[in-house]
Amino acid sequence: MYDSEDDDFDRSIFVGAWNVAGRSPFGSLAVDVSEWLNLKDAADMFQEIVPLKTNNVIGVEDPTEATNWNCTPEINTRPELSKAQNERGAHGGSKYKLMASKKMVGVFISVWMKMEFLTKYCISNVKVSSVACGIMGYLGNKAAVSGSMSIEGTSFCFIAAHLASGEKRGDEGRRNHQVSEIFRRTSFPNFF
Fold first, then answer.
1. pLDDT value at residue 138
2. Tens of pLDDT along 110-140?
3. I need a surface site. Which of 44, 107, 165, 174 has the fewest CB within 10 A?
4. What pLDDT digit, counting tens, does each position of 10-22 carry?
5. How many CB atoms neighbour CB 63 within 10 A?
6. Are the C-beta atoms of residues 104 and 35 closer than 8 Å to each other?
7. Beta strands 45-48 and 13-15: pairing type?
8. How many domains is the chain partitioned into structurally?
9. Which range of residues forms the domain containing residue 25?
10. Where are the transmembrane segments (predicted)?
C-alpha cells in the first residue's frame, strides 16, 4: 500500500458484516470487540455491523441505534491488558477512533482506525455515501452505505449492503442489478 525508503506501510484491515436482526448492542450483543474479531493480532482498522430494522423503511430512522453501535468498538480489543496498559497503549494495546459512519434503514457501516495512525500516517478524504435500491429502485429497504478514505495516498472504499433475497428465477439478476446501481450511484462528493 505505501512504500518509501524510510518506511513501509504494511497494515492489516479487518472487514466483517453481521446481520443482527435490528437489535442494538445490548444483552447478548454487548460483547467485547475482541470476541467478534477473534484474531491473534488486533486489526489496525476495521468496519462492521449490519443491523436490520425494516419498520424504518418509510418512517423516521432512530439515530440512537447507530450511536449505540458506534460506542461498541471503543472497548479495547486487547482485554488481557490492564486498564492502565490499555490507556497507555502498552504491549501493542490499541484504541480505535471512529473514522466514518453511515446508517440507512437496516444497513449500518462504521469504519474505525487505531489512534496511533492518525499522527503517524496521512489520513484524508474521509467520506460516506448511501444508495437506496429497494422498492421501485429508491426505497431504503434494500440499500448500501459506504465509507471512503485515503491512507498515504491509497484510496479505500468499504461498502455494507442489504440486497434482494431469494433463489427463484430472476432473483440473482435482481441482486446483480442492485449491485450495479450501488456502484453507479455511490459517490463521495468534494465539499469546499
1. 75
2. 888 888 888 888 999 999 999 998 888 777 7
3. 165
4. 677 777 666 655 5
5. 9
6. no
7. parallel
8. 1
9. 2-185
10. none
Sequence letter at residue 29: L
Does a structural domain hold residue 21?
Answer: yes
93-97 contacts at long range (C-beta below 8 A, 24 or more positions apart): 94/42, 94/44, 96/46
Q: Report the distance separating Cα 45 and Cα 157, nearest Å.
A: 13
Count of CB atoms situated within 10 Å of the CB of 86:
19
Q: Give per-residue pLDDT as tens, 157-190.
A: 999 898 888 899 999 999 999 999 999 999 998 7
Strand stretches in the chain, DSSP E: 2-3, 8-9, 13-15, 45-48, 96-104, 107-114, 123-132, 143-151, 154-162
Whether the CA torsion 64, 65, 66, 68 is positive or negative: it is: positive
Q: Are 8 and 154 in contact (CB under 8 A)?
A: no
23 falls within a domain? yes
pTM score, two decimals?
0.63
**Cα 167 from Cα 187, distance rounded (Å):** 30
Tell me how far apart the alpha carbons of residues 112 and 47 are, in angstroms, rounded to a whole number: 6
Task: Tell me the CATH number at 96.
Answer: 3.60.10.10
140 occurs within a structural domain: yes
Neighbours of 96 (CB within 10 A): 23
C-alpha cell at 109: 457501516
